[in-house]
């Protein structure tokens, strides 16, 4: 009888554990939107943009006058973005992204606001580009030499940790080293494999990520950004009028950006093999 109870409890625990793991997997999959995304089937389609709410801008009272030409109509106090112009500007931005990436340069993907973080992170991992989804580190562009030294320290430290080179230190010292590397990973893990300034920066929010925008402008790094109806698009080189708050809109617009990056990667010229003289 006791064995039967024990067995039943064990089965219940295993079932609960499996249920928790399934939930974790579901959450992880939801957060990693682009992990299994089929970019080959993606096409720029106004109907898809409409379904995803790309056309919804901010309230009329919050409109920036410089966005007037991208507003189709104001309905029920809400600015409606002209999706024809969104398509036009998106195609310009994608052509530029393709060109930059085909030249072997990187695009730094930036999205620090809550609804953009996981989407930007997922895309960056899928297309192999540097990213910033936490607080922008002042000097990332304007003081890049110092940042590059820190990212090198992080890369080297993580390699040494993998190889067990810190085993000669005391446990306390090892713990402090691991804590420092973990802290650096959280702060600059997304840019640790960015050996030089990027060829361009892509922002999901020109207002939220204005520090990145300012530094890019100072260093003359081309700026690509989603611009909602409350944004001043003046400093953005490649502006894409779009709803930058709704998750569905962000997912679709970043999918178009990701597709352009992948197409650019396909065009990267591989070094020719040296001709062996006989």
For the structure shown, list the relevant keywords.
about 280 residues, alpha/beta, Rossmann fold, Helix Hairpins, 2 domains, 8 strands
Structure characterization notes:
- This protein has 278 residues and is an alpha/beta fold.
- The protein folds into two domains: 46-138 and 197-266, Glucose-6-phosphate isomerase like protein, domain 1 (Rossmann fold); 142-192, Orthogonal Bundle (Helix Hairpins).
- 49% of the residues lie in helices and 12% in strands.
- The chain is built from eight helices and eight strands, in the order ααβββαβαβααβαββα.
- The protein has a five-stranded parallel sheet with strand order 5-4-6-7-8, sandwiched between helices.
- The radius of gyration is 23 Å and the shape is globular.
- The relative contact order is 0.17.
- The model is unreliable at 16-29 (pLDDT under 50).
Global structural class:
alpha/beta
CA-based shape: globular
The topology string of helices and strands comes to: HHEEEHEHEHHEHEEH
Strand proportion, as a percent range, falls in 5-15%
Q: What is the CATH architecture term of the largest domain?
A: 3-Layer(aba) Sandwich
How many helical elements?
8
Radius of gyration: 23 Å
Indicate the CATH class of the largest domain.
Alpha Beta
- Report the CATH superfamily of the largest domain: Glucose-6-phosphate isomerase like protein, domain 1
């Amino acid at each position: 009888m006791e064995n039967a109870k024990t067995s039943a409890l064990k089965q219940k625990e295993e079932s609960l554990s499996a249920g928790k793991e399934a939930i974790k997997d579901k959450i992880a999959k939801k957060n990693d939107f682009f992990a299994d995304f089929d970019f080959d089937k993606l096409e720029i389609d106004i109907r898809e943009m409409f379904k995803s709410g790309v056309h919804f801008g901010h309230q009329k009272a919050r409109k920036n006058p410089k966005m007037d030409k991208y507003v189709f109509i104001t309905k029920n106090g809400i600015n409606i973005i002209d999706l024809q112009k969104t398509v036009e500007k998106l195609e310009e931005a994608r052509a530029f992204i393709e060109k930059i990436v085909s030249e072997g340069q990187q695009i730094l993907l930036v999205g620090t606001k809550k609804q953009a973080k996981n989407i930007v992170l997922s895309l960056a991992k899928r297309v192999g580009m540097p990213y910033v989804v936490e607080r922008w580190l002042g000097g990332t562009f304007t003081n890049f030499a110092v940042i590059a030294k820190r990212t090198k320290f992080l890369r080297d430290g993580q390699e040494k940790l993998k190889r067990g080179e810190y085993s000669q230190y005391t446990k306390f010292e090892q713990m402090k080293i691991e804590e420092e590397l973990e802290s650096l990973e959280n702060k600059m893990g997304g840019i640790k494999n960015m050996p030089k300034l990027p060829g361009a920066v892509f922002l999901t929010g020109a207002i939220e990520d204005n520090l990145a925008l300012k530094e890019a402008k100072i260093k003359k790094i081309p700026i690509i950004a989603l611009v909602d109806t409350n944004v001043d698009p003046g400093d953005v080189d490649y502006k894409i009028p779009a709803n930058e708050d709704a998750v569905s809109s962000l997912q679709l617009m970043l999918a178009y950006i990701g597709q352009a990056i992948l197409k650019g990667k396909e065009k990267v010229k591989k070094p020719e093999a040296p001709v062996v003289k006989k």
